[in-house]
Amino acid sequence: LGVDLSRRKDHTAVVLFNANLELLHVLKREVSRQSLVQFLQDYTAGKLERFLRTEARKSRPINRYALPSTNTTNIIQLPEITTGTFQTIVLNNSQNVVVFYHSPYCAFCHGISYVYLTIARLMHNVPDLLFTRLDGESNDLPWEYTVHHYPSILFFPARRKAESRAFPTNLQLTVNNLAQFVLANLNVELRLLGMLDLCRRWNDKQVG
Q1: What is the pLDDT of residues 116-126, one digit of tens each?
Q2: What confidence tens digit (pLDDT) does each residue in 74-118 have?
Q3: Which pTM value belongs to this model?
Q4: Which parts of the sequence belong to the Thioredoxin domain (predicted)?
Q5: 48 with 137: CB under 8 angstroms?
Q6: C-beta separation of 78 from 117 below 8 A
Q7: What is the DSSP letter of 152?
Q8: Are residues 76 and 39 in the same domain?
Q9: Total structural domains within the chain
């Protein structure tokens, strides 16, 4: 359930789970007769806030790319989003944000990571465009931002966060398809910059 018992007295927690709405509520106060009664009264009155798990796992891929032309190493590390940082980073109206939803139990996610990181590297010079990752297994989000399968990639456009787009499930997740998906969701000016950047890098044979 994502409740850290190590920080609780007697390693004990009280939770209420609404199976129909898939909502979890956790008693925040110390367990006592009075707190339990108040907890149940607040639940009945609809005053309890939903409990959201949040955990920032150490991102395994600090990815290194050897550039043939310079024989140097290009390092890219993507921000790992949590429940607590989703609002300030992903819903930042001034920025276009791409989110890669993954799970430690999804074997396919590891293969897709290479494609995603390749595009993030190729387009890292495009202004106001941020590529991020989110461990959906360890971080609960409001239902409108929750995905139902992994891997999933969502694009949250600047100043139009309510118009987020998901990478089509009927398309193969390749470098070309993901590049076209990101470009299609940028405004005209950034789309042109992105296309020029991609063309230059592809011509330089920097795509692995």
Answers
A1: 999 998 998 89
A2: 567 789 999 889 999 999 999 999 999 998 888 888 889 889 999
A3: 0.69
A4: 80-163
A5: no
A6: yes
A7: E
A8: no
A9: 2
